From TrEMBL, chain A:
Transmembrane segments: none annotated. Residues 399-411 have a biased composition (Low complexity). Residues 445-454 have a biased composition (Basic and acidic residues). GO terms for cellular component: Atg1/ULK1 kinase complex; cytosol; phagophore assembly site. Keywords: Autophagy. The keyword Cytoplasm does not apply. Residues 340-474 are annotated as: Disordered. Pfam families: ATG13 (PF10033). Residues 358-372, 385-398, 459-474 have a biased composition (Polar residues). This is Autophagy-related protein 13 N-terminal domain-containing protein. It comes from Linum trigynum. Gene3D superfamilies: HORMA domain (3.30.900.10).
TrEMBL record, chain B:
PANTHER family: AUTOPHAGY-RELATED PROTEIN 101. GO terms for biological process: autophagosome assembly. Keywords: Autophagy. This is Autophagy-related protein 101. Belongs to the ATG101 family. GO terms for cellular component: Atg1/ULK1 kinase complex; phagophore assembly site. GO terms for molecular function: protein kinase binding.
Amino acid sequence: MDLHGMAPHSESGKLEQVVSQFLLKSLHIILDSRIPSLHPRDPTCDSRVRKSDKWFNLVLGDRPAALDNLNFWHRNLMDPMIIDIILVQQGTAISTSVGNLLSGSPGRTATETVIERWLVQFESPPRGTASQPSEGSAASYKKTYKKSIIFLRSLYLQTRLLPAYRIFKQLSSSSQPFNFDIIYKVSSFSEPFSRVEEEMMKEYRFVPIEALPGRLHVSVTYRPQLSEFNLQPLTTMPPKIISDYVGSPATDPLRYFPSSYKGDRAISFPSKVMHSPTSVPFQRPHSWTSGFHKPVVNHHLAGSPTVYRTSQMSYDSPSPPMERMQNHRRPLHQRAPFYDECQLSPPFSPSVSPSTPTYLRNSESPRQTRAISETAPVTIPSPISGRSSRYISPNFSDPSKLSLPPLSPRSTRLDNSSNESPSGMRLIKKPEASRADLGSAGQKVLKDNKDDSGRFSGLLSSSDSPRVGFSRSSSKLSFQDDIDDCDFSCPFDVDDVDPPDSRISQNVDWKRNLESTSMGRKSQDAAVGVLVHMLRTAPPLRQDSSCYSSRSLRAEVENDGVATTASGFFMPRRTSDALEELRSYREMKDLLLSKSGTRVLTREPP
Amino acid sequence: MNCEVCQLKELEVEHFEIREVLRCILHTIVFHRALGLVRPKVIDLELFDITYVQCGDGELEKKIDEKIEQFISWVEKHPNKKSQVCISFYEVKNKHPSWFTNKTERLYWEQWYINLNVSQQQKVHSGKSHPSKIVVDPGDSLEERSARRAALETSLREVLFQIIKFVNEKKDHVPPISDGVVYFPYEVTIPSSSDSAFGMDMIKRMLQTGGHPTMLS
């Protein structure tokens, strides 16, 4: 029965209108719950009721533009309306080659799978058997309308109970890109499913709606399980600055022990820790270089309409009146700004990256500090504390300042510091002198450290956080490359992070303490404090045996309440510094000998 | 006019799940019977991976929540029992008015029975339960709990499909829609506290379901 050509006010005309609007409303409901790009951003904020909303008393908001085109091709109401919901998945391998990424042709393929197929059809009885409009049919379109209202309510719910709604929610609720997309295709003809596909799908048929003289049939064939598709977010993640990481001043200011230790500075561990953060933003493609990856997604999916069109053209041809409606992922365009934003993100990297080592450093330092404090739970004299804390805070409160400055400023600063207070390095050098006394190992270390001394010291003075070491020759040599690449500090290294001023004061205090050990308890405490500091800055245990002997020496001396020379680990930069240190050691030695007598003499290191 | 009755599949729920389950079912039923202009509101359940649809009417939400709270109070007083919540749709018919009375009669044209079996719970709190509180039965293992939760989710989904099927199969009994009216008059009935009424409910249930009566603890 041809409903066309009837006067709109006649029964048939009204029924045709109801059927036509029913098709549109059904399509709107289905697309609204399947295609993220067509889904209104915030439906609650739009309170107006459109003319289209009044149909079937169901307010859905703006109709997608695709629906406006529906009337052009769906001329014959008898033609079925087939809505295919297609899952598009990216290919498997993610190319790390920049060229491939930018070219957008990495050889990836997209797989399309029809996960749902909706069929909405107005079925009229064959010609000749259709009954003439009876008296009761005057209100039949009204009954059809009322039943359609109820049906469309249930369709609205049904679309949200089927499995495809879950992945729609995934796509629409998250701003991050995924490795899949959902598109749709509306046509009046579709390629039938293969046998394999049919077996994987279930069908649900709604009860037909009476629309005299015909009926409205709605059914859906859907995949009950979508878990077989590896649907997940893309690995590229925009950078995120974590300001409240463990150990940050905001979260845990007490961890710094600001008053006493140099030792609570970050003792960064091996090179990789330090090395990687600075290089991550520029080398690892999956960190914040989302700009590299996203264009792939963008490009690929932007190209998808072409791809999908060509692929679908094959079954488009049999029915010319049919119009293919597709969407490509509009968020591609909408997200282009997002991608641009991500590309802007790398400027964060210099500030962000050091937070990682800082975090690690901080996480390291308490342990280190604790380990050391367990051996000598005595606070270090206060003159150091103020300066120490001053140098602690900038590092941890402002991640951007953690990026280690280049070499030259440090060197300059070093020179200044050395000019200001040559004796400031004395403490550093003294251990070195004692190490030289200890033997060739010390000398070797001396040599090695000389090469790196400027860098290390400069590093420390600028950042104040890592403890730069000199301690081991072999381990030091192994880190050369890393040192070249970035500023690196070894664990158990001498902590010369204090600025020259503090060093001077410290040295002076230490000297004072040495001289006045016999004066009384106060000086003894101070001496013990200095000793503790020396212990803390002692070389690692895996140093040669001289280390142990020197430690035992210190222990002995501590028992006697006299500070002794600490094992050396600071690296003199010049011979004159070394000699000066040696001189001071000799003085100390003499002093100790005078105090302790033969006992010390017998324990002198070889 | 016939009164169509729909007995929904029985659900085994824990105390803290009652609110969400009842909200989901009641709003779904009302949504299908609110044939006036409606702006649907999609709600994701917190305890289950299920989405349902409300009418987006604050007043309606409030009324239904009140009824649910009354039911929860009843359940707290009568623990470990099977219970029913009934939502009925009716038409108001005016009887011929007289001097003393102006009675209106309710003609029920549809009734939905939501059957719940609230399992025993060791409640930590007493009184009104808060939506965010979750009472944990320490006796159950994690696996048992998650298995029960999954089974309830499946059953709840089946109940929703049952509602969809029922509303599409039976449409002729639905009265005509009045202009300007969104909802048909409805009534939510919860079990009464009185013993006699409860006994009657039990008998009714037995006759309807043909099953064994629940032994009172």
